[in-house]
Amino acid sequence: MTTSSSARVGVQKFGSFLSGMVMPNIAAFIAWGLITAFFIPTGWLPALGANPLDADGNALNNGGLNFLAMVGPMIVYMLPLLIANTGGRLVYGVRGGVVGVIGTMGVIVGTSIPMFMGAMIVGPLGGWLIKKVDAIWAGKIRAGFEMLVDNFSAGIVGAVLALVAFLGIAPFVQTVSDALGTGVQALYDSGFAPLLSILVEPAKVLFLNNAINHGVLTPLGTTAAAESGKSFLFLVEANPGPGLGILLAFAVFGVGLSKASAPGAIIIHFLGGIHEVYFPYVLMKPAIIVAAIAGGATGVATNWLFGSGLRAPASPGSIFAVLLQTPTDSYIGVILSVVLSATVSFLIAGIIVRSTRKADLDAEAGDLSAAKAQSKANKGS
Amino acid sequence: MSADLTHTVIFACDAGMGSSAMGATLLRTKLKTAGITDVTVINKAVAELASDAELVITHSGLTDRARHMAPDAIHVTVENFMATPKYDEVVETLRAQRA
């Protein structure tokens, strides 16, 4: 294994550890996004969300329906605790998940913001701690006392971890979260947010897409959306536009297998939201990454211009998921961000694919293109 | 390559939810068409691969990690999830085992 490939494996492993805590719980993010969409005052069914107020500000009886009351606890408790449980599980199974959840209660209560980052730290930490503690007396417990020891060791470790998290980890995580949030906001306010695409798009096609989106952007975006109702961060990676443009370019200007497979890939990518299907087209012709970056940056810039964003993560990154998570005031910006990013990436990718068409046609003579054989040889090591 | 019959094919991707699920569906269809009924195709995250995996399919960007997780498995690398001759090769391998 070469240095670069082992570095890549290391980054991928860390990245998928982060996204692995979030992704199994995306359904809960969607549920939270839907409940918010229906019942907030500007939502689809605000009357069922909270008791309407009369002219004096007194709550009127709406039949006891107060669904909006779920939105806060879901983001403050449910989502971070699910992440903590999954994180603890990744380290040490169900038992690790339980201790991770107990400990994460400390960071949740010890801070005033939704504690995604805290959950992503304390969840696995809890799993790791109980794993180490179990190892101390593994094989030494008298028959019949296993359950007593297991329950109380996990209970005590969890309780202590919650206290430590409350006192020590919560202030630290709050500081870091605030700094990150301020940083992202500053990037947004200054208009430089489209530069994010320079990092995001190349990392995406190296299969760090989930790591970046769900490891970093989903927690940051959800925190922002809890305050302002939406965040552009959910679309930085998940916008299906750049990939659509690239696939269209291959469908129109490509040759052989890549041209033949592009239309099917468009359906799976754009409607099904499986972005991985367009990565091989970029890896085949690395210059195409320029199209992805320009398309992605166009999308971010469009959302910046229109002040638009999504309510909750669009996962998978299908146009249907994107539209379902678009708040009513963001339809124009979000739809334009998809259309314009697809247009820009199509134009640039089209030029690149067109300019190498002749060489590709020659290479197609050997059935598999030289580039693909070469990349296969590189990666086979 | 092991002489034993392979009964489980694992399609693995980063999250174990997206492209691997799609690849598993494509392969299941091909196996059904080929009349091979005693092979189960499942999809999971690369990080969840166990060392007893028999045959693992991954995209080339993830094969290094998959090898690390399941060193004893047969590893098949694909470049393009949609159109790859590799699926047919896997079907052929499984059919040959059963001939």
Which terms would index this structure?
heterodimer, A: 381 residues, mainly alpha, B: 99 residues, alpha/beta, 4-stranded parallel beta sheet, 4 strands
Beta-strand fraction estimate of chain B: 15-25%
Low-pLDDT segments, ≥5 res of chain B: none
Order of helices and strands of chain A: HHHHHHHHHHHHHHH
Number of helices of chain A: 15
Give the averaged pLDDT of chain A, no decimals.
87
Number of helices of chain B: 3
Would you report the number of β strands of chain A? 0
Structural class of the secondary structure composition of chain B? alpha/beta
Let me know the largest β-sheet of chain A: none
Order of helices and strands of chain B: EHEEHEH
Largest interface: A-B, 42 and 24 residues
Please state the average pLDDT score of chain B: 88
How would you name the oligomeric state of the polypeptide chains in this document?
heterodimer
Q: How are the strands of the biggest sheet of chain B laid out side by side?
A: 2-1-3-4
How would you sum up the global shape of chain B? Answer: globular
Shape of chain A: globular
List the helices and strands and how they pair.
The complex is a heterodimer of chains A (381) and B (99).
Chain A: H1 3-22, H2 26-39, H3 71-110, H4 116-136, H5 146-189, H6 196-228, H7 233-238, H8 241-253, H9 256-271, H10 279-284, H11 289-306, H12 319-324, H13 331-355, H14 357-364, H15 370-379
Helix pairs in contact in A: 1-3, 1-6, 2-3, 3-4, 3-5, 4-5, 6-11, 8-9, 8-11, 8-13, 11-13
Chain B: E1 8-13, H1 19-34, E2 40-45, E3 55-59, H2 63-69, E4 74-78, H3 85-98
Helix pairs in contact in B: 1-3
